[in-house]
Structure prediction request, 122 residues.
Amino acid sequence: MHGFPESLPDAATTLEISPRAVAEWHHLPLDQRPRLIDCREDDELAICSIEGHEWIPLGAFPQVIEKLTAGSERGVVIYCHHGMRSQRAAAFLRAHGVENAFSMSGGIDMWSDIIDSSVPRY
Prediction:
């Protein structure tokens, strides 16, 4: 799979990754796992987040494309509330050369439901 972490799915077949797959590598040091980017708005971020994330709202993606593509060789996983905005974000990154960009299916809502119930749902 081109040297990407084994926990990432095949980018040729899907744009999404499950919260369970993210949880498999989430405990690794930041420099040893894919980047985890929260693309929600600041009012949503104030409610909850996933530890170890980077925050870049979806609307800011075009202005910070260099920051988004830097360090992307280890993979990029984007999440939002339910997984719709993060799908657009992953497609945007792929269109800008980040072939191993994925959207976390179900967003932080599903993360809270099946991975970490201490993360508030809204």
Notes: The radius of gyration is 13 Å. The chain is about 30% helix and 15% strand. The longest helix spans residues 84-95.
